[in-house]
Amino acid sequence: MPDGSFQTFAGREAWTLRHLVDAGPRGLTTIDHPAPRWSHYVYKLRRAGLVISTEHEAHKGDFPGHHGRYRLETPVEVVTEGSA
Asked: For residues 73, 76, 78 and 84, what is the CA-based torsion angle, rounded to 10 degrees?
């Protein structure tokens, strides 16, 4: 974390964080990466202290509307990754 502390994430929160880290500054959307409950996992990461921005974008197609592009704004370093 920015203050030098460590946090451990597991399950879907860890999965979401890994995707956000991999996406880098371009971020990711539910359109490009369909997955269950992105907004909920982003919410839980935010509640843990990470800053994740959401930019709303319009989309066309059979079901036009809007979706969010999530970007991890907090610099993080993945120290170790694996299953416990």
From this structure: -80
CB-based contacts of 39: which residues, under 8 Å, 6+ apart? 68
Pairing of strands 52-59, 65-72: antiparallel
Beta-bridge mates of residue 68:
56
SS3 readout for the chain: CCCCCCCCCCHHHHHHHHHHHHHHHHCEECCCCCCCCHHHHHHHHHHCCCCEEEEEEEECCCCCEEEEEEEECCCCCCCCCCCC
Beta strands at 28-29 and 52-59: parallel, antiparallel or unpaired: unpaired
Quote the pLDDT of residue 27.
95
The residue type found at 55 is E
Q: How confident is the model at residue 67 (pLDDT cuts 50, 70, 90)?
A: confident
